[in-house]
Design goal:
- The complex is a heterodimer of chains A (446) and B (441).
- In chain A, 41% of the residues lie in helices and 18% in strands.
- The N terminus of chain A is likely disordered.
- With 446 residues, chain A is an alpha+beta fold.
- In chain A, helix 9 packs across helix 15 and helix 10 crosses helix 11.
- Chain B has 441 residues and is of the alpha+beta class.
- In chain B, helix 1 crosses helix 7, helix 3 packs parallel to helix 8 and helix 10 runs antiparallel to helix 11.
- The chains are: A alpha+beta (446), B alpha+beta (441).
- Chains A and B meet through helix 1, helix 2, strand 4, strand 5 and helix 4 of A and helix 1, helix 2, helix 4, helix 5 and helix 10 of B.
Chain lengths: 446, 441
């Protein structure tokens, strides 16, 4: 009793920020950046702290430490017992959670707006005063190993993604899973976690986003009271990661697993991300992904492969420009019954070649622009989504101005810019093509 | 990489419990009756120029005709694949040009339609949706295209341990009742569906005798009344009869479904209670203390926090239209499954004795405080409005809900625990290669 269609692969949303008039920003003397988004429709606040540190900042051999520490951040401080953080949030009718990406680690609570002071007090406390009893570290290591079991090892599609990413990046740690390689996770220690914490969990490495029924002046006063006294990490080095060399050779992988029921092809190409002050190419790629793989009935891949030739039962194109370093543009195709993966892949290549010759259909291009504009209206209804966009953007190297400018830059994308971006990105030498196939189960030995 | 469990419950996914009420925020609901007699609940929210509309047709996939399992699911997936003068592509182009969004989902007990449209395009967006509801084309090429997608999904489901677990549990619990089989159908039934079956499924499901409507956004009651008559007035008056009660066929025990994977998926359950049971709130609090999917709940504490046996464990009440369950879900490495079952069984026994005053107080504070957090956007509020109506709750429920939670006493929970929690009836379905765990009987 689950889903209707094929497992959803990667979907892309046209992220658009809020109007400027509801947004304010300031920085505390200790370096904490603060963003306030007002939405007074309901007496609720979202309080988020984003650290400018993610799994791609880990040292070799330490994969998973960023995510492991995220779990350990709930284990108590000088003032709080293990688990008490969430107890207090819940006792005040709130929800809390956290997540780790390659570029950032974030903690957040949703709660009645009049509890903001309390949330800030708790979050500020664990920014600098974490306590990690060895026994809790040991148990939590078992939890993240089970998490890896559940999310990755039990799911051939997730294992396939891990292998594809490892092949995609020759040098950058985007090629290593956020949760970590199992053999390295098993070796993570309490001291590893504390070293990570002591260096990177500091006001001068964090962004506070407060969104909801709040007054910016009051948020400033509360932030000064709660976060103001925290000491920054002295001489915090700029984020420096191993950079990718030029990618000169096409890579192809085949991942076979007996649990695969529906084979498919995914290809990803190296692609530029949204850079501060230079988001035009990323905007063109965002529109390109919509053109190629938006709605099946109107997108280039969907129309040609699902409707005209019936080569595929599912197609998509994906790109997310929010990333600190170079990212991926990709497509996926699930072949129709009786169509081989090679035929499906060739069909996509044929469609892409034709697209580069023809350029976008003007009517489709114009409809996509209409939807981008509309997203500015719909987006106002989701204040947590807005908070997330700002936190994610700022912790991925963008400025507030970049985030504010994004809708206009998307709107200014021309058909020529899309074709130019497509020509530049659709380069097989910088691409990984992955086939997911079913491996016949091993025959029992007589 | 969220820290807590991502909820993937087979049975509860179809339920919009509409459970709850609002402590502090005001949600002024107006009941609107259209000139043609269609009822809706409306919250006017003119500050953002769009409307969120939630439509529900009671019955959903449970009214599939005998031997036609999957017809309503396939029909639902075809609703926007061409309507009136527009083929699938024409329809999608028209929708995109309006920047409207529509989604159609077949649940076990209901067919759900969610729509959002801009104020400036309201009339055209409603007209397009009307074409899809009243004049879907069900073109043969669209049927084959979508059928192939459904069949592919069914193939994948057969290799997905979560789906295998919920399908196995459902089949064991409900047998030949529609609840006992997948609403998507089986590869055999879906392959055999004809266009006539699709048309029959449409007539059986989308009818005026089973409509519920929730609306939030930039629209007045009068405008909404006219809109509803235009949108829904031409639907047939009556649909297919609902199925009868689903008898619960499972006894306590264990069913192991062998599957080659490092981590077993475990579903466990027993009978539950009805949504309109006077003890529902007491049971809801009991469930929250036992298996609420958050830290501090007993199972999360015992299985994850103390022993590190899983990434997440939770339980839930599933009051469906024709049966009631109390269920839980957990995943654990094959070699740890036996220990997980032992801990869950022990907690089930402990739960028969009720909860402590401290647990009751904490659960109340959490549930009453968290209630307003649900009202976070036009779409979610419209969803709550329609769920309240389907559950038969009064229009002022939001104002009284937290008081009903507060009114539950320790004795209430103890009494309900003694009746509801049945350790002897608890049945586990384990999909994987659990070590030291075998099927009973």
């Amino acid at each position: 009793m689950t889903r209707l269609f094929v497992a959803p692969l990667l979907m892309m949303a046209l992220a658009v920020p809020a109007n400027a008039e509801t947004l304010s920003h300031f920085t505390l003397p200790n370096g904490l950046d603060v963003v306030v988004i007002e939405d007074h429709r309901a007496p609720v606040v979202v309080h988020m702290v984003w650290y400018r540190i993610g799994s791609a900042d880990e040292q070799p051999g330490q994969s998973g430490i960023a995510h492991f520490l995220e779990h350990l951040m709930f284990k108590g401080t000088d003032k709080l017992k293990p688990g008490e953080f969430s107890d207090i949030v819940e006792a005040n009718g709130g929800n809390d959670n956290a997540f780790t990406t390659w570029d950032t680690t974030a903690y957040y609570q949703r709660i009645a707006a009049d509890r903001l002071d309390l949330m800030m007090g708790l979050e500020a406390d664990r920014m600098r005063n974490l306590v990690l009893p060895q026994a809790d570290v040991d148990t939590e290591l078992q939890v993240i190993l089970e998490e890896r079991n559940q999310r990755t090892d039990s799911d051939p599609a997730a294992l396939f993604t891990e292998q594809r990413r490892a092949a995609q990046w020759l040098n950058h740690r985007y090629g290593i899973p956020i949760i970590g390689w199992r053999h390295e996770m098993e070796q993570l220690s309490r001291q590893d976690a504390l070293d990570w914490y002591d260096t990177y969990y500091a006001p001068n490495n964090a962004i506070l986003v407060v969104a909801g029924d709040v007054d910016p002046a009051e948020v400033r006063a509360l932030a000064e009271k709660n976060y103001g006294p925290l000491k920054p990490t002295a001489d915090l080095a700029a984020r420096a990661r191993p950079e990718e060399p030029p990618q000169l050779a096409e890579r192809r992988i085949t991942f076979a697993d007996p649990r695969v029921a529906q084979p498919y092809v995914i290809r990803t190409y190296m692609a530029p991300e949204r850079d501060p002050g230079a988001q035009q190419q990323a905007a063109a790629l965002t529109v390109l992904a919509e053109l190629l793989g938006g709605t099946a009935a109107t997108s280039v891949l969907g129309k040609k492969l699902q409707f005209d030739s019936q080569t595929a039962i599912y197609t998509s194109a994906f790109y997310d420009g929010v990333s600190l370093d170079d990212t991926n543009f990709g497509f996926a195709v699930v072949p129709a019954d009786g169509v081989s993966l090679q035929q499906a892949e060739d069909a996509v290549d044929g469609v892409l070649a034709q697209f580069l010759l023809d350029g976008p259909d003007p009517a489709q291009f114009s409809r996509i622009k209409t939807q981008i504009k509309a997203e500015q209206i719909y987006g106002k209804d989701d204040v947590q989504g807005l908070a997330r966009r700002y936190g994610e953007g700022l912790s991925s190297g963008l400025t507030l101005q970049d985030i504010e400018d994004w809708p206009a830059i998307l709107d200014a994308v021309t058909p020529e810019a899309v074709v130019e971006a497509a020509r530049s990105v659709l380069n097989r030498k910088a691409a990984v093509t992955g086939w997911l196939v079913q491996e016949p189960a091993a025959e029992a030995q007589p | 990489m969220k820290r807590t469990l991502i909820h993937r419950f087979g049975l509860i996914a179809a339920l919009a419990l509409g459970f709850g009420a609002m402590a502090r925020a005001e949600v002024p609901i107006t009941e609107v009756t259209s000139p043609g007699g269609i009822k809706a609940w409306l919250v006017e929210e003119p500050s953002i120029p769009f409307v969120a509309l939630e439509l529900r047709f009671k019955g959903g996939a449970s009214v599939d005709a005998p031997g036609k399992r999957g017809a309503i699911n396939l029909m639902t997936a075809l609703i926007e694949e061409g309507a009136g003068d527009l083929d699938a592509t024409g329809f999608a182009e028209a929708r995109e040009a309006l920047a409207a969004s529509y989604s159609f989902r077949a649940g076990e007990d209901l067919l759900a339609i969610s729509a959002e449209f801009l104020s400036e395009n309201r009339d055209a967006s409603v007209e397009l949706l009307r074409q899809a509801l009243i004049h879907p084309r069900f073109d043969p090429d669209a049927i084959e295209r979508v059928r192939a997608q459904v069949l592919s999904g069914l193939q994948s489901d057969e290799q997905d341990p979560d789906t295998i677990a919920s399908r196995s549990y459902d089949a064991l619990a409900f047998g030949s009742h529609p609840y006992g089989s997948a609403r998507d159908g089986s590869p055999e039934t879906v392959a055999a569906l004809t266009r006539d079956d699709i048309l029959a499924a449409h007539a059986a499901t989308l009818a005026r005798d089973r409509i519920f409507v929730g609306v939030v956004g930039d629209i007045t009651p009068q405008e909404l009344g006219l809109m509803l008559d235009h949108l829904l007035g031409e639907l047939p008056a009556t649909g297919a009869p609902l199925p009868g009660r689903a008898g619960y066929l499972l006894q306590g025990g264990v069913t192991v479904v062998p599957f080659d994977t490092p981590q077993s998926v475990i579903l466990f359950g027993q009978t539950g209670l009805k949504r309109d049971d006077p003890d529902f709130f007491a049971a809801y609090i009991l469930n929250e203390v036992l298996g609420g999917g958050r830290f501090g709940a007993r199972l999360m504490t015992e299985v994850r926090e103390k022993r590190g046996l899983t990434y997440g464990i939770s339980t839930f009440l599933a009051p469906m239209d024709h049966a009631e369950l109390m269920m839980g879900q957990v995943s654990s490495a094959n070699e740890k499954v036996a220990q997980v079952l032992e801990v869950v069984r022990a907690e089930w026994v402990r739960a028969t004795m009720g909860i402590s005053q401290d647990e009751l107080d904490k659960a109340k504070t959490y549930l009453t405080g968290a209630y307003p957090l649900r009202f976070d956007g036009n779409g979610p509020i419209a969803d709550i409005l329609v769920g309240m109506q389907m559950d038969g709750l009064p229009i002022d429920y939001i104002k009284t809900r937290n008081a009903q939670v507060e009114a539950v006493t320790l004795d209430d929970v103890r009494r309900v625990a003694g009746q509801l929690i049945k350790p002897d009836q608890l049945h586990f379905v384990v999909v994987g290669q659990p070590v030291g765990v075998v099927s009973t009987e």
